[in-house]
C-alpha cells in the first residue's frame, strides 16, 4: 500500500493508551489522521470517536479492518491480544503499530514478525522512550562522544500500580511490573547502547504491596550484561507511592548525564486546595506536588506517531520494530527465569512452550 497525503489510521482500544494515540496523532496533523476506532464494550468506541472527532467506530476490530482506506492500525489493547490482532491487521494488508510489550511469548513474536514480512507490511513497536526528547538528547551527547566509553546505563519507571484490571491478571498481561514497565527499560538500554547484543540477565522480583490484587511481581531489579562489557540496570515498581517516576542515568569513563523526565520538567508546587491534574498516576494535587506540562510531548508520543506515519509513507525507516520487541521478549523470559532460579541467565534464551513469561518465575 503506498498512498499519498495524510496516513489514515485506525485505533484498537478506547482507554488509556488509545487516548494517547489519538491525542498524539492530533498533534501531527500534517502526517496522519485517525479515521476509525474499535473497542468491544458497547458505547466506548462511539464515545471515544465523539471525543476525538473520529468519523467511524466499531465494536469488533475485524470490521474496522475491512475498511479499505485505513493504512495503519495501532494496537492499544491488553498484551495477550497483541499477536492475534497483529496477524489480523497484517492479513488485511495494513501496517501495524503494536504497543509494548510486543506479545506474550517468543513464538508469538516470530508469528507476528513473519506474518508482517509475508504480507509486506511494517510491524512497528511502540517504544516511545526512543523518541522521548530528554532521552534522545542524552543519546545524542553519548553518540557525540561526550561520555567516552559508556559502562553503565540505568533506566527506571515507577508508580503505585496500573489503572486497568487486566494488568493485574497475569493471564492477560503475562507478568507484573517487569513485563509492563521493565520492557521499557530493556528496550531503552539496548537502544542506548546501539543494539549491542545482550549476554546475560540477572533479575530479582518481588510482590511487596499488591499481593491481594495480583500474582505478578510489583517490584523488579534487573542487571543486563552487554557483549561490549557495558552494564544495564533496570528498576521498576508498582509499589512506589507519589505518582509517576521515569528516569535514566548514563555513565561513561569520560562523563555522565541524568535525565529525569518528571522532576526536571515539573513545577514544584504547593496547594492547600488542589487543582485538576498533576502528572500520570499522582494520587492528589493537594500539598506539595510536581505538575508537568506538555506531558505527551515530554514523553515523545507525538514524535513517535509522526515517525511511524512517515515510515508508512516511506519517508523514514522504522526506528523501533518487531525485532526490537522480540529482543525485549527474550530478555523478559530471561528475567523471570533468573528470578525463579536465582541464577544469571545467558542469552540466547529461548525455552519452548512458555505460555506466559511469569511462569518461568513461579508456578501459579
Ligand atoms: N507505551 C506506553 O507507555 C504505554 C502506556 C500504557 C499502556 N501501554 C500498553 O498499551 C496497551 C493497552 O493498555 P491500556 O493502558 O490502554 O489499557 P486499558 O485497560 O486502559 O485499555 C485497554 C483497551 O483494550 C480494549 N480491548 C480489550 N479487549 C479488546 C478486544 N478483544 N478487542 C479490541 N479492544 C479490546 C479495551 O476495550 C480498552 O479500550 C497494553 O499493551 C499496554 O502495555 C503502553
Query: Which structural class best describes the helix and strand composition?
Result: alpha/beta
Order of helices and strands: EHEHEHEHEHEHEHHHEEEEEEEHHHE
Instruction: Give me the Rg, rounded.
Output: 20 Å
Task: Bin the strand percentage.
Answer: 15-25%
Number of separate domains: 2
Q: What is the percent of helical residues? A: 25-40%
CATH third-level topology of the largest domain: Dihydrodipicolinate Reductase, domain 2
In whole angstroms, how far apart are the ends? 44 Å
In short:
By secondary structure, this protein is of the alpha/beta class. The protein has helices spanning 16-26, 44-52, 61-66, 82-91, 106-119, 133-143, 165-168, 170-173, 177-192, 295-299, 301-312, 322-341, and strands at 7-12, 32-38, 56-58, 72-75, 95-99, 123-126, 150-158, 198-206, 219-226, 231-237, 245-252, 255-260, 269-271, 287-289, 345-346. Helix 4 links the parallel strand 4 (72-75) and strand 5.
